[in-house]
Amino acid sequence: MASDSFSSLSISSAQIANLESLGYSKMTAIQAQGLPAVLEGKDLIAQAKTGSGKTATFGIGLLEKINPRFFGAQALILCPTRELADQVGKELRKLARCIPNIKVVLLCGGKPFQFQKASLEHGAHIIVGTPGRIQDHLVRETLDLSGLKTLVLDEADRMLDMGFSDVINEIIDQTPKTRQSLLFSATYPDSINKMCDTILNDPITISVESEHNTSVIEQKFFKVSAHERNDSLLALFENYQPETTVVFCHTKKQCDEVARFLDGRGIEALAIHGDLEQRDRDQVLVRFANKSCSVLVATDVAARGLDIKSLSAVINFELPRDPEIYVHRIGRTGRAGEKGIALSIFAHNETIRVEAIEDYQNKTCEIETVDSLNRDAKFSVHPTMATMQIDVGRKNKIRPGDILGALTKDAGLTGSQIGKIDIFDIASYIAIDRKALRKVLDYFANGKIKGKLVRARMIS
Ligand code: AMP
């Protein structure tokens, strides 16, 4: 039986101290099973989901092999989406704190190529990105993978679903055969097995049960007739009155329609799906995370990698065919010991999906009708915060403190009127109490941040 203490591993004492400072007191199941093999240099296939601690499993492993004095790409992590890449990048930066001057560069689509090229020219040890953009860099010879030591495929099943198989193979062709390869996937369809055969060398296979405890999630199923779906959704909001909600839909069109419907009924909602421009996706995610929007209507792909700590409710506007997707969706509520609620609407001809969920969870689903709900027709959702965008960001060396300083000292806001501040490369987003919006807009008519005149606008 593997010990679950990080000090049982052959990793640097600086990393052990770093993990302690991050509050990682013991290894998660996937770390205890995977890290010894990863540190021995073995290839790995791991069945694990987000939340299992998988990022640290490959992160701690790849960092041990990095040579900080060689400023070339030594580790590459391929992710299906920008959001997941962001999340992985953040976690790696935390893990890399114990080694001075390690550079982690994100290469994802929807971001200016030139900035990425410039970052690479300054030297990067670890690359995190989406396959399409990584391939662009290889084609234009702005990225060299000949010194690569570790290759990670994160959420490999999702990348194949998104049609990245050929691109991934072309990228791998440019890496040395001596590399260590680590593949993480939530599911194991045949296509993944085939991929493993060609990419991995004598791999170790591990699988861990999801650590998420679905027993703290209250699950309810509402049988409705197909034409009542919209009104039933409204009934769920009016009865449960959740503070933050993600409504899952199947299609992009449905997301837009449902968001519009809710908006029209006094429930401010935003849709997020793959058809949005990257900048618009960023904005939606920022607004949801900074509490200036509290209802998101999303497809599964768009919601993946969303870093939301405490959702009060997940609503399935339609049930997925695959019960595993259902469990993954509802796992976004009830985190960190909080109680969550998962509400699902289904029509008679979708009963088979409810049965599949019952089989998968090995328990009976509670089925109700919306008639039994207590509706408060006056219920509405209008967040108290709004999001302001300003046209300066990381490239202008702006930090949250600069913005906070300008708004509290010069514009006269109180600290409590300012929420989360998100700094992007060429723009920043600030959550502001709606009551203070006028003051902020007036200030930015002439106001400066770090001596620079700044343009500001409210996003709606
Ligand atoms: P992941 O599955 O990699 O997305 O990780 C889920 C979360 O668990 C992240 O927020 C990590 O910071 C955190 N985490 C990873 N390993 C540990 C650990 N050993 N102890 C406590 N938290 C951890």
Structural class comes to alpha/beta
Mean pLDDT, rounded to whole units? 90
Q: How would you classify the quaternary structure?
A: single chain
CATH topology group of the largest domain: Rossmann fold
CATH architecture of the largest domain: 3-Layer(aba) Sandwich
How many distinct helices? 17
According to DSSP, the number of beta strands is: 20
| Helix content class | 25-40%
Task: Describe what is shown at a glance.
This protein has 17 helices and 20 strands. The chain has 460 residues and is α/β, with parallel strands linked by helices. The chain has three domains: 6-207, P-loop containing nucleotide triphosphate hydrolases (Rossmann fold, 3-Layer(aba) Sandwich); 214-372, P-loop containing nucleotide triphosphate hydrolases (Rossmann fold, 3-Layer(aba) Sandwich), CATH 3.40.50; 385-459, 2-Layer Sandwich (Alpha-Beta Plaits).
Description:
With 460 residues, this protein is α/β, with parallel strands linked by helices. Strands 3-4-2-5-6-1-7 form a 7-stranded parallel β-sheet, sandwiched between helices. The protein has a 7-stranded parallel β-sheet with strand order 10-11-9-12-13-8-14, sandwiched between helices. A 4-stranded antiparallel β-sheet has the order 16-17-15-20, sandwiched between helices. The site of adenosine monophosphate has 12 residues, from helix 3. Adenosine monophosphate binds next to helix 3.
